[in-house]
Amino acid sequence: MKVNIDFRFIRWLKCGTFIDGSVVYAEALWDHVTMDDQELGFKAGDVIEVVDATNKEWWWGRIMDSEGWFPASFVRLRVNQDEPMEEYLAHLEEAQAGEEDQAALGLLLGPGLPCKEQMRTNVINEIMSTERDYIKHLKDICEGYIKQCRKRTDMFTEEQLRTIFGNIEEIYRFQRKFLKGLEKKFNKEQPHLSEIGCCFLEHQTDFQIYSEYCNNHPNACVQLSKLMKVNKYVFFFEACRLLQKMIDISLDGFLLTPVQKICKYPLQLAELLKYTNPQHRDYKDVEAALNAMKNVARLINERKRRLENIDKIAQWQSSIEDWEGEDVLSRSSDLIFSGELTKLSQPQAKSQQRMFFLFDHQMVYCKKDLLRRDMLYYKGRVDMDHMEVMDVEDGKEKDFNISVKNALKLRSLAGDEVHLLCAKKPEQKQRWLRAFADERRQVQHDRETGFSLTEVQKKQAMLNACKSHPAGKPKGNNHQTGYSVRGHQSPLSRGYRYV
């Protein structure tokens, strides 16, 4: 069977576009997590229409109605533009190409090995090559930029440098150690026999240092953007780049690299596992490493989402009238669920309609304004760390001596505080019971992974919220309060894993 190699593809690689207006498609090897409005996000396996590839590092592409820049290294161009890549790989071994086709295949796969072993060689070589390139990038940032910036105390404070560069020096030290481990396991003569899975397993917890960097990255972009509005900083950073003989990428491009790198590891390992025979000595380690790095990426993404939403929580608090006590962010960082419930409290068992907002560690309840139903007044909070949640059967409730329906009870562990809450429908009650269980799991997970907000992050979020609500402007509207008058799910929680 002869493989139909599309030689327009080879010409396109040289010039970046087809003269005859043909469309070029690429297949995503890894997820691309966007950090900028002009970037194109996609998942591994997505097919991207490549519009412009004149820049070697960043291409312009299109998926459905979305367009934007994306890193060229995250995709693989289809060799045969009219045929899915998987079908092409499936019959490579059977191909008996002509001399011209064979030469093209030799460039792509190399001679001498069965297809699967050659593909494993390619993936191993790519991992090693990208790792060495990455170390070079990190070195350039640390020695080319940070070292020079520290000499200019008239231009930069240490706090500014920490914001811009985060913990990238720590990442650089770790990655050098990691690369040494990879080099020891790399089989130069027969790369497909390399056993590198154990390297990822050995350092799986060390990769969590990327969480701090990824969470700080948006702040770095803001700080850098401010400085780049001043010519002396533009000239200084360009001088640093030229002095270090770095490639022609702006500093913000270099600073994006660690964010992309940590997302790329699980996808590289997935590709490696795909071309590793189950009988290979590295198979089990690669399989375990893939799961470990997926967990690392998942943890980082989860923390990133949490930190991106603390501004929304601060905005929500600033919209509540008559707020009392400490800020929500002093203890919490995740809105888990919200909705309207009937609250009964001892000793009179007085019935009150309240909006409840369940965060990790605490639950806040508010009263709606009688005339402006979108305005909320703070009425109190419950410390969930010292509460037990109890499902109450329909009928007579002994503590309150009243008949209830769709009820649940919150009782303090000390027994001195009891809240009886009633939902309108049985399914709403069940959703609240699941939410309370989710809250305890979240607290336990945060404790195990060491997640917490810094004082700087809390203060900055509250400061941003105060700025957005200047004195004299009304605070009561749906956009500002961030809750739905009709539903039980707050827009605050959009994007959270519990929705």
Shape: globular
Residue fraction in strands:
15-25%
Under CATH at level 1, the class of the largest domain stands as: Mainly Alpha
Number of helices: 14
CATH third-level topology of the largest domain: Dbl Homology Domain, Chain A
Radius of gyration, in Å, reads 28 Å
Spatial order of the strands in the main sheet?
Answer: 9-8-7-6-14-13-10
CATH architectural category of the largest domain: Up-down Bundle
Helices and strands: which structural class? alpha+beta
Q: How many structural domains are formed by the residues?
A: 3
Helix content: 40-55%
CATH superfamily of the largest domain, called what? Answer: Dbl homology (DH) domain
Order of helices and strands: HEEEEEHHHHHHHHHHEEEEEEEEEHHH
Main beta-sheet annotation: 7 strands, antiparallel
Average pLDDT taken over every residue: 81
Distance between the termini: 51 Å
**Care to count the β-strands?**
14
Which residue ranges are poorly predicted, with pLDDT under 50 across at least 5 consecutive positions?
Answer: 1-21, 79-111, 471-499
Main location: cytoplasm
Subcellular location: Cytoplasm
Pfam family, one: SOS1_NGEF_PH
Organism: Seriola lalandi dorsalis
Compact overview of the structure:
The chain is an alpha+beta fold and 499 residues long. 46% of the residues lie in helices and 17% in strands.
Overview of this protein structure:
By secondary structure, the chain is an alpha+beta fold. The chain has three domains: 7-85, SH3 Domains (SH3 type barrels, Roll), CATH 2.30.30; 117-308, Up-down Bundle (Dbl Homology Domain, Chain A), CATH 1.20.900; 327-447 and 454-463, Pleckstrin-homology domain (PH domain)/Phosphotyrosine-binding domain (PTB) (PH-domain like), CATH 2.30.29.30. Helices cover 46% and strands 17% of the residues. The protein has helices at 7-15, 85-90, 99-109, 115-151, 158-165, 168-185, 197-202, 209-227, 231-243, 251-274, 283-319, 426-449, 455-468, 478-481, and strands spanning 24-28, 47-52, 58-63, 66-71, 75-77, 335-345, 350-359, 362-368, 376-383, 387-392, 395-397, 402-404, 407-412, 418-422. The two termini are 51 Å apart. Mean pLDDT is 81; it is low at 1-21, 79-111 and 471-499.
